[in-house]
Queue: 4 jobs
Job 1
Amino acid sequence: MKKIAIPGMIITYSSFPVSFLMVISWSMSVLLQAVCAGIIYARLTK
């Protein structure tokens, strides 16, 4: 499971030549993946 979302994205933004928009899109992608995984896990454990 990914637990480096926000601190990892701040480090990525400050260390690598990437745009802030790219970092935000990666963060939103990770959030969406986590929500989808939670929904699937909740349905499987019923």
Job 2
Amino acid sequence: MIQVFTFCALPSLRGLAASNPIDRQVRLPTARVELQSIVAADPNVRAASIVDMSGQVIYATDSTVNEIWSERVFVQQALRGQLHASVPVREFGEVSQYYSAPLLNNAREVAGAVVLRIAVQDMWAALDNQSDMWLVDENGVRIADTSAKPQTFVALEPLNANTMSTIYRTKLYGPEITQIRSTNFPDLAVAVRRRSTPVTWQDAQGQVIHAAMERLKTNSWTVIAFASEDSIFAAVNDALVLQILIALVSAIVAACAVLWGRSISSSNEKDG
């Protein structure tokens, strides 16, 4: 996100976004070089794009030129003047994220947006050393899963028709996600919405699961760390169960600190 914040200040990109269709052809070569350099400098950056105020891609280093992105959340947020990091999306045969930032004209008005598509491993790496942890978004959909059997893009409970319609219309999780499967953890979904912690639920095998959770301070994502009751009692006696639960909370705090440090959201940049 810090990179995107830096790139949106480049005069060549700002000038391209603010120009009319005729002047745009004059400004395009310089902006093209800048964007291609950005992609070439970091293998995790899959593509860089410029979007105008209508949401149309006016230049991109990939095949998305002239596509209309007005329904995509990362574009809508940038055109409202906000820095934004999207949920992971499945697109172009891989899972990635979109990082976006507004481009301002000389009057300090939003004239377009710069968008980077980044390999999602950059975010998922924040949880690499944590097992049995989920990151869920505001819809209760798992966008990171370090459990033994990961189920990314699976909701905690069935989503209602309006939510599903919005997800597909905005391509929230990418155009290659044509169905959002769900598990049946309604108690956990309610706990996430209410920010209730600790919480207990039963998994599909009937095992009792204990968990702690924490909402990220900079967006509506929630980190959940969990362990089965059997695994807790198999290794320790009753007196240490509380310590195990405290350890779960500590794991949550550590994960959140790493995620914040990697600038998953943009609040610090906006404050600046």
Job 3
Amino acid sequence: MPKMSLSEAVSIKAKEMDRYHQQILLCLGLLFFFEKNKSLGMFVGAEIDLKYALNSVQKCVRPDVIIQAWKKDGKLFGIPIEIKLSVDYDIEIKKELNEMKRYDNQLSGWKEFEGLTPDDHVIVYAPNGLDSGKVKRVLEQELKSGNIKFNREFCIWEWQTVTSQKYGKGDVLLIKQIFGDLHGMCDSLNKQLTDGIPIDYESEEFAKKREGAVFTRKKPPKEYMMVWLWTNVLQQSVDSSSNITLDELTKKVNQFYKSELMNNNDGQSFFIKKDWIREAMDWFCKIKLCKESSETCYNIVMNKKIRNISKFICTQVAKKEKLRKINTDTNQMALETFTQGS
């Protein structure tokens, strides 16, 4: 495997951060769309456990997003959605698709609406548009060979930001169904998804939805967490060379973060995980933007010379990771040489 240059490593980190941001736009876009199209269905949220029985044992699945849509006969059907930020290899895609078999069971735990709950569901896998083609190819191969089988309708919804005058706007988030069919269940929703649902994420109306919506329940790339912490919390909340504990920082983060995206059926929202913050702070120490005063207390070093904090963090983290890999490889070679000489 060829060695990766520093610029390539930085570019990959920037891409991972952008995809995480696009995932947030996807969740908000679905919320935005169904709030405007209540006759089609409703955005339920996430952090919801759907239950099923496997060999008399109770199991749970927790989709990234749950939609409940209206059938033509006036009943509800469920749409649990698993969002995938990035997949690189066919073997990884096959593993992901096999894990989606968990949804191919009778699920309970849906939200009740007007006395109704879904009596059936489809399964939706949602990769980024840059990966959707290979996901579809692998799925079709696996279905044809009989290596995988779904008893319920399986759909692929791709998502990506695009620039197109076709939609009468500049940049839009496009959500499109490229595999599967909701025809017969909800023809109108099926047609819109097949044609592609454009979400104008630059509109003032959508901007209100974006306020505070900076995370989903998926763990963000550490660089994304670092940039957000530095820009929105550390610079706003601490003075130069001041100390802050991990508990204080976690409290500040969760006070700042407000979003209806991740509410569960009871309206309870999840909290940003302390481990995410700890990892980010530990990396701040490694790149000299803070010092660890104790195991859970940090001394912030405000560097006024940083103009592009995102580029700075990605570059410095990539350098540290590259150096760590060189040291690991060197130690491994030394160990092998010692072993061979014994």
Job 4
Amino acid sequence: MDRECIRYYGNKSLYSIFKSIKDNEWKYYRSAYVDDIITCFDDTTNCDNSNSKKMIIEYINAGGKVGVFNPIIDDIKKIGIDYKLPISNMRCAHSLSVFLLGIVIYKVLKRKKRILNWYGDNYNSGLYVWYLTCLFHDIGYYYENNEIELDKSIINGCKHLNNYDLGLNYYNYRKNVASDYNGIDHGVCGGFLLFNELNNIFHNHNDNEELCYDDDVKKLYKIAAEAIVRHNMYVPNTDSQKNQYRELGLNDLIDSKIQYNMNNPFAFLLCLCDTLEPIKKASFFNLKYNYSFAEVLKKVKICMCDYPHCLDTNFCIKYSVPFQSIGDLYNSIGVDELEKWLGVKVSHNTDCDLSLKISF
């Protein structure tokens, strides 16, 4: 990359880049949460009630979406625990970081004219889809970690999703057949739960509420839910696995990658940002380190070319800690697997021992 190409993100830390994001670029709702989003990363995994969790609760409350968690909260209350948000501090910080990283990449894609305004001509509609996609993408971990099946009424409420059949078949595969993974898939559970509960909120809302509940918003629910449903599906690697996938109606996952689509980038961006975002990766090493989330973001640098006449989208992401070697980094991120299911090229940048170059 020559110097002219590096405009916004010239070898800056993610912390610095996130801090530079303007309010109108991440605030869909104009009130009810923090003024300075970077303060949400000041906590560690071990704190009791993180700023990132508080921020997400307030963001979701401002949008009238807290009801999405009702099925989970009702289950948890049965065992005598009262949760306002049944997601760990790490998952909250990770989800918020995914949200901001996607905005960063979007700005470069927009400058290169490789993307529309997220959704049609309206930036806010796209921001709405992106916040739903990111802040809710891991809610299905409650089901995966506790091996709890989705209620059939939730599954039946998702038949209008374009990837409903794929999601249901994969859900049944993970639950009944797969032996290498946890029995329940958090991606399918999260996408189905989000779509069903958002539609319940839509149909039961109070007409006096100031929030928008026109029919077009249901199209945005669908886009977000479909991205979440798809984001954790494993592709088959062997001929035996491929034959098994065919028998179970999972043909769409065979020799197929999630490709970048400038008209609907949400599934691709979720998968990319969810994979590369460092807070989730750092948590795996926190037995040895107890970094704050902010410290992790400060130790990861990103360099992106936003020169409009350079049509390729590529960026280098440099990790300082907690990875000890390029092998640790590759294994944690799953670089070999990433290229099998996502339409990107990944290479080791020789300028830095712990640096990856991502192109699409």
